[in-house]
Write a structure and sequence with these properties.
Length: about 120
């Protein structure tokens, strides 16, 4: 099992910045993908950004150039630096770890942290 603890959400004005952190513990495999998803009220959950254990990154088009995902493999922690925040970034942000074993992937989720951007 994998446990994820998120921190860093909050309320910020448009144009401001926030940094989310997610620390993973438990049975962490060396090869995995860590990412952030978000879900706004009435909307489906969407991928914001993901980073592989090798450092490859993937971003939603809506956050490219504003958000940066990074990870510290020694600490099993993933970060999301969010700059130039917009009201439409308001959502619950959840950390995800996807691990692979014998051709099967396993997903683990954090409890979610609220990000609210005021106009």
């Amino acid at each position: 099992q994998v446990q994820l603890v998120e921190s860093g959400g909050g309320l910020v004005q448009a144009g401001g910045s926030l940094r989310l952190s997610c620390a993973a513990s438990g049975s962490i495999f060396s090869i995995n993908v860590m990412g952030w998803y978000r879900q706004a009220p009435g909307e489906q959950r969407e991928l914001v950004a993901a980073i592989s254990s090798g450092g490859n990154t993937n971003y939603a088009d809506s956050v490219k150039g504003r958000f940066t995902i990074s990870r510290d493999n020694a600490k099993n922690t993933v970060y999301l630096q969010m700059n130039s925040l917009k009201p439409e970034d308001t959502a619950v942000y959840s950390c995800n770890v996807r691990q692979y074993r014998d051709g099967v992937h396993y997903d683990y989720w954090g409890q979610g942290t609220q990000v609210t951007v005021s106009s």
